[in-house]
Amino acid sequence: MTPILTVLICLGLSLGPRTHVQAGHLPKPTLWAEPGSVITQGSPVTLRCQGGQETQEYRLYREKKTALWITRIPQELVKKGQFPIPSITWEHAGRYRCYYGSDTAGRSESSDPLELVVTGAYIKPTLSAQPSPVVNSGGNVILQCDSQVAFDGFSLCKEGEDEHPQCLNSQPHARGSSRAIFSVGPVSPSRRWWYRCYAYDSNSPYEWSLPSDLLELLVLGVSKKPSLSVQPGPIVAPEETLTLQCGSDAGYNRFVLYKDGERDFLQLAGAQPQAGLSQANFTLGPVSRSYGGQYRCYGAHNLSSEWSAPSDPLDILIAGQFYDRVSLSVQPGPTVASGENVTLLCQSQGWMQTFLLTKEGAADDPWRLRSTYQSQKYQAEFPMGPVTSAHAGTYRCYGSQSSKPYLLTHPSDPLELVVSGPSGGPSSPTTGPTSTSGPEDQPLTPTGSDPQSGLGRHLGVVIGILVAVILLLLLLLLLFLILRHRRQGKHWTSSPAQLPMPRKKTSMLP
């Protein structure tokens, strides 16, 4: 057989069978999966192939590996382009394409590939946003997917969107663990940004781990910020409960509370606007040291994915986290006249970087001052004055260390500050201890002087003046008597010289 004949025979054998169904005469069909292409093991899914009007039959195939399950699909479903899987397993995972054809037009092109992924093969990874899941509109954010197992592949999926997931190889950062970094953005409030990530082995790229917990990005706009307050107060003891109240007059229907540094939002609450006012109450507790930190809240309307500007930050402080005790004392005393100055002194034997002063029932944030080291103690002086009746009340102080600024010591014993009125009478009786300082703190009160009220000090001054006047009068009286005595002495001394001399007798001669 000549070489030319051999070539012609080969061409005939290769082209002949395909002349009837040559691809390219029909547009390629569309292949998709319902409810999605990333399916949890054991869940149902249906692959659908849709072609043109001249379609007489559909064909579905898996690349690189034959899918025997396709041959078991009833023909009436295949003719409609439907390929259902009642309960998906690892055997169904893979990369699929479909095509269609007819006797007159031949075979279509193959569809774009569909990657059918089965999840649940491994433990779930952790997904976080760096530096925070709170992002300004138009900004970018880094999503970080971590696993304690050494996987070499990760996928990031947008929740609710049927599109091919963004994939990125992991970057090992510690022995026995792996990480992948995904850049997302610029974000906009036109839709919600919900993500999950998965881990997989590159040898089985369509068998993924369990999904990470859902991560939502909070896209901020410029609408009016809400207000954030706390009841009963920002300082709370372990095991207690507190309520953070987020409110606004902008008519927001939804509020979210976020703690700085957390992976996601603590709570999401809805509130119905009433007369333009709306509020959501977030209850936290029983609290532990992990609750300490800085909180903000945001508001949004139901029909918008855009969140408001953040509220002003609110610090939640957890007391009772250090063994060191603090003491609180006052100079010159716990009872002071209106208009005078006082100094509250907070001290600790152990190291504290800052001290906080609180007033019972006050809405203001705690007064925080950096400590100084004096007389073998760490202390801070809180000056007040000129005082008014508004300064009267019960005070406590706490200590804090820089490495844990939201964790505090136990409170000092309460100190009752009494401010006397303009008339000199006290505005209220002293009901608490005059000082919480121990014996080592006694130098704060001058030796030999007891704390007195403003009236007592005024009476002391008046008595002193009266005593001085009396002493002056006595001194003047004594001086008067001395001068008078001297005058009388001179009078008695000069009197004998004035006595008449006796007459000399004249003798008469006989």
UniProtKB/TrEMBL annotation:
Q: Which UniProt keywords apply?
A: Disulfide bond, Glycoprotein, Immunoglobulin domain, Membrane, Repeat, Signal, Transmembrane, Transmembrane helix
What stretch or stretches form a coiled coil here?
none
Biased composition of type Low complexity is found at 425-439
> What Pfam family is a match for this entry?
ig
| Chain positions covered by the region annotation Disordered | 415-451, 491-510
Q: Which SUPFAM superfamilies match?
A: Immunoglobulin
Disulfide linkages recorded for this protein, renumbered to the chain, are: C49-C98, C145-C197
UniProt xrefs under PROSITE patterns: IG_LIKE
Signal peptide location: 1-23
Q: Which residues cross the membrane?
A: 459-483
The record places domain Ig-like at 27-115, 313-409
Please name the GO terms of the biological process aspect recorded for this protein, alphabetically: cell surface receptor signaling pathway
PANTHER family reported in the protein's UniProt record: LEUKOCYTE IMMUNOGLOBULIN-LIKE RECEPTOR SUBFAMILY A MEMBER 1-RELATED (PTHR11738:SF165), MHC CLASS I NK CELL RECEPTOR (PTHR11738)
Task: Write the protein's name.
Answer: Leukocyte immunoglobulin like receptor B1
From which organism does this entry originate? Homo sapiens
Give the encoding gene's name: LILRB1
